[in-house]
Amino acid sequence: MEVKLLEATENPEEVICSAARNDYMEEFVGDRSFEEIMATVEGEDIEEKKETLIGHLLSHGHFGPFEHAQATFAVKGISRSCMAQITRHRHVSFDVRSMRYVSFDEVDPEDVGEGEMVVTPPSANDPDWVGRNQKTGAVDEETVEKREAVFRESVKRSVEDYQELLDLGMPPEDARFVLPIGTEVNMVMSMNARMLMHVADLRAAADSQWEIRDMTERVLDLAKEWCPITFEYYEENMKNRKNRLAP
Known about the structure:
The chain is of the alpha+beta class.
């Protein structure tokens, strides 16, 4: 899996603060410099003033201003299972690589699951892995070897059947029906800072599935570089709540 920040609002926390101050100013924020907009906010310099205001907004549940800062992320190599989970967030915009128009006819079935085409879950080869809703805990080495063999044979057979159907003239949009839900897709998604925090509330939580949790943590790492005050506050004070920022 790989996650990259493609594009984002420039100076996002200035935008957030300007939007928030607009609600309590007689003057038009469009006619004022950022320093003038923040003049009455507590702090020795502009960075401290931003920290003061953003902390106040988040701690008091004034989330609207965070909807003005937008970010677009590119995600490579997640499973269709993970995609199905993240696309339930209807306030996020998505584009997903099409399996109608992009075929996998040149993939070697022997390489599938080895970083190629199908995501391999940790439980397929880690005897100590314990997942949510799992009936039993850790297993012995022999059991996990059998588990991995069954998994790899299944996905290999699916890809071989898919490629044979393509050779027999079936269109990719129909041949794809035999592929596993672990088949990799690439995705672009856009959301505002408030929605990102809401997604993280649910998808970076300890009880979320390992893959979407990994993806969300990578998105949060990029968000902390893009919008540092906001997401450092979120990490320290608000992470792992349920639905607090639901739209």
